[in-house]
Specification:
The complex is a heterodimer of chains A (about 110) and B (about 110). Chain A contains no helices and 12 strands. Chain A has about 110 residues and is mainly beta. In chain A, the strands form 3 sheets. In chain A, strands 2, 5, 6, 10, 11 and 12 form a 6-stranded mixed beta sheet that branches. Chain A starts with a strand and ends with a strand. By secondary structure, chain B is mostly beta strands. Chain B is globular. In chain B, the strands form 2 sheets. In chain B, strands 2, 4, 5, 6, 9, 10 and 11 form a 7-stranded mixed beta sheet that branches. The chains are: A mainly beta (about 110), B mainly beta (about 110). Chains A and B meet through strand 6 and strand 11 of A and strand 4, strand 5, strand 9 and strand 10 of B.
Chain lengths: ~110, ~110
């Protein structure tokens, strides 16, 4: 069965510092990995995806993610955090046949001024 | 704005009742997905439709059903509601039904069962 895990319920960083939100995955076959962000009272917004190719994926709002096959990880990163990045972040793996997304439990990112 | 619309935004109802949630996908998207977000279960996939046909089923209760109409909008029907059905219900759409295209999420319908 496919699954993703986000080991941290919350990540706190200071504005201007780099941030990392961790995700590990378990899949049979090739992983199709996604990051989504959810702001309060809003739907999920797509940030980036890894299908194949470069291990460093660039996405929206200055975010990027590093795919590491040997560590089965897909960590979300940003070089300089903004207060407005504070939100709930979800890592997800996609079932390649049906397209359904299997989400991690989510990580709350708090960026303090 | 993702282009996916959901109505209503909020729904408050009583146990035992039945409700219908509506979703209009992005223009041109053939696939619609329904997800439930609750505090204890997190974000869970319920069901997927592709061009009017059921494509995949997840943890959807027998009291719940869905359909996708010829104009591609979808409805999720929840019946014999229980307190535990209170959650945020999201609809998402994608161009096709496979694994490579991202899903675009609507703003959700918040269901409160009293």
């Amino acid at each position: 069965a496919q699954s993703v895990a986000q080991p941290e319920d919350q990540v706190n960083v200071a504005e201007g510092n780099p941030l990392t939100v961790k995700c590990t995955y378990s899949v049979s076959g090739n992983p199709y990995l996604f990051w989504y962000v959810q702001y309060p009272n809003r739907g999920l917004q797509f940030l980036l995806k890894y299908i194949t190719g470069d291990n460093l994926v660039k996405g929206s709002y200055g975010f990027e993610a590093e795919f590491n096959k040997s560590k089965t990880s897909f960590h979300l990163k940003k070089p300089s955090a903004l207060v407005s990045d504070s939100a709930l972040y979800f890592c997800a793996v996609r079932d390649s046949n049906t397209g359904k997304l299997i989400f991690g439990q989510g990580t709350t990112l708090q960026v303090k001024p | 704005d993702s282009g996916v619309t959901q109505t209503p935004k909020h729904l408050i109802t009583a146990t035992g009742q039945r409700v219908t949630l509506r979703c209009s996908p992005r223009s041109g998207d053939l696939s619609v997905y329904w997800y439930q977000q609750s505090l204890d279960q997190g974000l869970q996939f319920l069901i997927q439709y592709y061009n009017g046909e059921e494509r995949a089923k997840g943890n959807i209760l027998e009291r719940f059903s869905a359909q996708q109409f010829p104009d591609l909008h979808s409805e999720l029907n929840l019946s014999s509601l229980e307190l535990g059905d209170s959650a945020l219900y999201f609809c998402a759409s994608s161009p096709l039904g496979g694994g490579l295209d991202e899903q675009f999420f609507g703003p959700g319908t918040r269901l409160t069962v009293l």
